[in-house]
Design goal:
The complex is a heterodimer. Chain A has helices at residues 5-15, 25-36, 41-51, 55-62, 84-89, 91-102, 147-152; strands at 76-81, 115-120, 132-134, 137-139. Chain A has a 4-stranded mixed sheet with strand order 2-1-3-4, covered by helices on one side. Chain A is elongated and about 50 Å long. Chain A starts with a helix and ends with a helix. Chain A is an alpha+beta fold. Chain A is 43% helix and 12% strand. In chain B, strand 5 (252-258) and strand 6 form a beta hairpin. Chain B is an alpha/beta fold. In chain B, strands 6-5-9-7-8 form a 5-stranded mixed sheet, sandwiched between helices. The longest helix of chain B is centred in the C-terminal third of the chain and has 18 residues, at 360-377. Chain B has 16 helices and 9 strands. Classes of the chains: A alpha+beta, B alpha/beta. The interface between A and B is large, with 54 and 67 residues. The complex binds flavin mononucleotide, iron/sulfur cluster and FE2/S2 (inorganic) cluster. Flavin mononucleotide binds next to strand 4 and helix 15 of chain B.
Chain lengths: 155, 450
Amino acid sequence: MSLSDEETRQLDAILGHYPDRRAAAATAMRIVQARRRWLSDEALADLGEYLGVTVAELDSIATFGNMVFRKPVGRHIVLVCDSFACWSLGYAELRAAVEAELGVGMGQTTEDGRFTLLPIVCLGACDRGPAMMVDDELHGPVAPADVAGILGGYA
Amino acid sequence: MTSRPGLPGYPADDRPLTRAMRADGLPATIDDYIAAGGYEGLRRALEGLRPPEVTTMVTESGLRGRGGAGYSTGRKWSTMPLGADAPHPKYIVCNGDEMEPGSFKDRFLLERNPHLLLEGMLLAGFATESDEGYIFLRQQYDTAVVAIEHAIAEARERGYLGKDVLGSGFPFDIELHVSIGRYICGEASAMLNALESQRANPRARPPHMTGAGLFSRPTVVNNVETYMAVPGIVRHGPDWWKGLSVTDEGGTKIFGVAGRVARPGCVELPMGVPMRELIEVHAGGMLSGFALRAVSPGGASTSFVPAAQIDVPLGFSTMDEVKSRLGTGTLVLLDDQTCPVGMTLNMMQFFAQESCGWCTPCREGLQWMAALLEDIEYGRGEPGDTGVLAEGVWFMDSDKCFCDLAPGAMQPLESALRLFPDDFARHVAEGGCRYRRHGSDAPALRGTTW
Ligand SMILES: Cc1cc2nc3c(=O)[nH]c(=O)nc-3n(C[C@H](O)[C@H](O)[C@H](O)COP(=O)(O)O)c2cc1C
Ligand code: SF4
Ligand code: FES
């Protein structure tokens, strides 16, 4: 597999934001991950060729970030905040409700490939704790009873 | 609690950080912003001030960084090389990482008032004769991404950003960079590595960033709220800024309250407002059935303040009196039904997870201290364990660690040991925790790359 035309077009558009191709690597990984959901070894190889950097170098950045996926993930990413404000406001109950609704634990993907459930540090929404995100949408405060309704909205 | 401009009883009823915000919660458009006096500071600078004069105004205002450390903004800017011999490009970087647990003010500002940030960065660029700005934003701030991208497009279209800002001959543009994650990217020198797509370990200092920063060029890094303070200072002058506060530190600030209160949220208030007033008046006080025990005043790296000391004014110097720091000024409350050991454990697990691994005391020590705290919380603690923790606090200072992450992690722990000794002792004596909200329930998967 190689980069699609659309991927190449998006990558070309961001190169101008950085003084050299190498410096665009983190943003380039975000762009390709947004399209392919996760970064396979082939994806990194494609990117490495495009940016003129080695796969090892890309992987050294990828393994540093907490939101670069090097394994397959579901269609939607569910993030439950586990930092101290949300913890004190009902994180345990929220996490249990999400796990029960999805039938998976933290770090796992539902069998139908719909959701991957992950822990996240403080979402900067402590005043809305306990908080969670589904893809790019923030939800909070979330009562355990609200969980099914929220997740039901994502196909 | 939403921002309520114009509260009576203060030196001035001005709320420069929130004035342009819309009541419907959507981001202020460029027209909203201009109608509220936006871009007037920039016009004033372009039409009649020399770059160093802008820096002097910022210095005279007394503005101190809102990212937590409180360094003088004007003094930082004045170390940027100016004139024909200065290296170019020079960079203005905005720190919008906001990943420290208990910090929630920059999200509020970025989602609602993006043009104020652009104007502040433009003024920083003008003052330091810089060429380009980067806004470094954490992941998960997707709503802010939309607001900022839209604001940048509007500003370019109207000539506020670009090769010739408002026809003045000053070229300046701003790019948005969204992080691929990790708390350490908020540390300013690590942020520069992240922006360069390097592994985001902090850098050794010297050299200082204003000498050799992003791509080894002179660089200013400031917090979101710091830049947002600048347009008003340039428009109305340093004395106006100084007159806004109830203490002598100047200005207003975004404060916040999270926890068991009637109206959690963010509000713009004069610097120096008493912590008690923030909690009891603006946040509506504790919910019935809950009593306040302590406050984490400005992010997980600030020391707990006991309920008995909440009359303290919220300011940089005043918070010393209660052995804490202002930090981000967003309070998280510890109530009487929540275990203080459990809360401290949760914070320590965060810092252990987010250690970048560069230096040994932090990489090894934090894991180890978190494990010891976990033992205490779950009833496996032994007498003497708190002494070991206290020794760890002593050991993990800034002489031995490469950056401030590990020393910051010691602040909640040190204060918890000092303020809640009976709780620690009881956990050990009784072999467990009696609080309703306890444990830590933190996932077993911390520190994993997915
Ligand atoms: C581990 C760590 C994380 C930090 N995170 C942030 C952050 O998210 N936002 C921020 O403005 N400053 C953060 N800082 C402080 C920055 O290093 C730097 O002091 C600040 O951005 C300077 O801006 P200011 O002077 O306007 O406050 C962090 C510091 C450390 C040690
Ligand atoms: S103190 Fe921790 S976060 Fe800072 S450089 Fe050392 S290991 Fe990295
Ligand atoms: S602790 Fe959950 S959003 Fe801050």
